[in-house]
Amino acid sequence: MKSIILPAYNKNIIRAMLSLGIEDVDMPQVGEHEVLVKTHAAPVNPSDIAFIQGSYNIKKTLPAAPGFEASGKVVATADSCKQLLGKKISAFVQDDRGGSWAEYFVANKNDLIVLDAQMDMDQAACFTVNPFTAYGLFEIALMRESKAILQNASGGQTAAFIRKMAEDAGMAVIDIVRKEEVKSQLMDNGAKYVLLENDESFEDELISLCKKLEATTAFDAVGGPLAGSMFNAMPADSELVCYGGLSGKAMSGLDTMDVIFDNKIISGFNLMDWKAELEEGAFESISMDLQKKFINHQLSTDIQGSIPLEKLARGLKSYISNMSGGKVLIKP
Question: Could you read off the pLDDT of 168-187 as tens digits, one per residue?
C-alpha cells in the first residue's frame, strides 16, 4: 500500500512538509482487538502539523506515517471484533506502526466510532476530535451555569461548534480572532461579539464585554499572553479552561491577586481523559446525538477541499495559510 512517511521531526514547518514523501509499505497486520481500515479520508489538523514538527505530545518511532484522524471502512479484523467487519467508521489513531495518511491503517476497536448509515464520510473524517471537544467543553459552561462564554481561536472548527451549542442554549459568546477578514466572516455568519486581539482597544473592550455579559467560563486554545488577558478580564468566580497551545508559548500575564481574592481558577481539558471518565455507555449516547446533528445539518465541519496523497505538500501549504477556511482532506 501507499503511505505518507515522515523521515524525521523538524521544527521548521516548511522543511518538515518538504521532507514528507510517499512510499510503498507493507500492509499492516491486525493484532488483538484491532481492525484494518481502508481509508476514505483523513483531515489535516493542527495536531498533525505539531506532530511532524516534533512538538506534539505523541511521538512515534521514525520513519512513520502521520495522521491521527480518519474515516473509512473496516476490511479485516481480529477474531475478537468480527462484528465490525464491513462497518463504516470514524477513528482516532495513535498507533506507533502507522497513521491515517495512508491507503490503510490499523486501529484499536476502542478508538473507533461506528457510523450511522446516513453519516457523510467526509464529515466523518473530522468527527472524532473537534465535535467531542466542543461537547465536553460546553458541558463545563453548562455545569457552571455561565451566562456567557469567552473563547479564542474563534475562526477554528471547535469554536464554531461551541458557538452553535451556545446559540441553541441561549448563551452569549465573546469570540477573539487575529484577522479582520475572520472577524467579518464570523459576524456575517451571525456571531455577535467578535474582538480583534491586535486592536488598540482590545483589552478595554474585552473587560467591558466580560463584565456586561457575565462571561464566567473561558476556553483557551492559544496560550501565551492572550490567556492572561482573558483570565484577567473575567469577573470573580470564573474559570479559564485550557485545551490547546497554538501560540507555542506558555501562559503569561495572569493576575495573581485574581486567583487569591476573586476565586478565579485555571483548568485543563484533554479529550482522552474526558472520554475515560464518562460513565459506561455515555460516549456512545453522545456520539449518536452528535451524529444526528450532522445528519440533520445542524452541525457540520467546514471543508475547503481534498487532495490525493501525491499532492500532500500543496494541501498542507493551503491549510497552514488558511486554517480558518476549513479542513483539507487527504483522500488516498
Answer: 999 999 999 999 999 999 99
| Short-list 229, 289, 331, CA closest to 4 | 331
Q: pLDDT tens across 57-103, in order? A: 889 999 999 999 999 999 999 999 999 999 999 999 988 878 999 99
The range of the structural domain enclosing residue 101 comes to: 2-127+301-330
pTM of the model: 0.93
Joined together, the cell numbers standing for residue 233 give 478580564
Alpha carbon dihedral 51, 156, 174, 221, in 10-degree steps, equals 0
- Residue pLDDT, tens place only, 26-66: 999 999 999 999 999 999 998 899 999 998 888 999 999 99
**In a domain? residue 313:** yes
Dist CA 185 CA 178 (whole Å): 12
| Long-range contacts of 162-167, Cβ-Cβ distance < 8 Å, separation of 24 or more | 162/134, 162/137, 162/138, 162/219, 163/191, 164/298, 164/299, 165/134, 165/135, 165/138, 166/138, 166/141
Q: In this structure, is residue 132 part of a structural domain?
A: no
Q: Which amino acid does the sequence have at 314?
A: R
User: Is residue 212 assigned to a domain?
Assistant: yes
**Number of domains the chain contains:** 2
What does the pLDDT look like over 222-251, one tens digit per residue? 999 999 999 999 999 999 999 998 888 999
Residues 41 and 88 grouped into a single domain: yes
Read off the CATH number of the domain in which 321 is found: 3.90.180.10
Residues 42, 66, single domain; the answer is yes
